[in-house]
Design brief:
Blueprint: H1 4-18, H2 25-38, H3 42-55, H4 59-84
Helix pairs in contact: 2-3, 2-4
Length: 100
C-alpha cells in the first residue's frame, strides 16, 4: 500500500492533471479515457466510462477515442514487427485530403 505522504502527493498531482487550466474538461476527460485504454488499465477505463454521461461524452465520442487508440496501437505493433524483422520501422502511410 502506498504510504500516506506519497498517496497525498499522487492525489494532488492527479487532481491538477484532471482539473488543468489549459484544456477544457471534456477534452481532458477524453484524453484520460484514451490513456486508460492505451495502457490497458481496466479499472480506469470502467471509471471513466461510468462518468462519461455525466461529463456530456457521447457514445460516438467514445467510439472515436477507441478507434484512435486502436489505430495507434496497431501502428505500434506493425512498427515493432518491422524493427524485429530487420525492416526499417516506419509509421503507416497516410493520405492527405487532397489525394482522396
Amino acid at each position: 500500500m502506498l504510504p500516506e505522504t506519497q498517496m497525498k502527493a499522487f492525489s494532488e498531482f492527479y487532481n491538477t492533471a484532471r482539473k488543468n487550466q489549459t484544456l477544457d474538461e471534456k477534452t481532458t476527460f477524453l484524453i484520460h479515457l484514451a490513456a486508460s485504454m492505451a495502457v490497458a488499465c481496466y479499472p480506469c477505463i470502467r471509471h471513466y466510462l461510468n462518468q462519461a454521461e455525466d461529463v456530456g461524452i457521447t457514445k460516438e465520442e467514445i467510439g472515436a477515442v477507441l478507434s484512435i487508440v486502436m489505430a495507434v496501437s496497431s501502428g505500434r505493433v506493425m512498427m515493432q514487427f518491422n524493427e524485429a524483422s530487420g525492416q526499417e520501422p516506419s509509421p503507416p502511410e497516410t493520405r492527405s485530403p487532397e489525394s482522396c
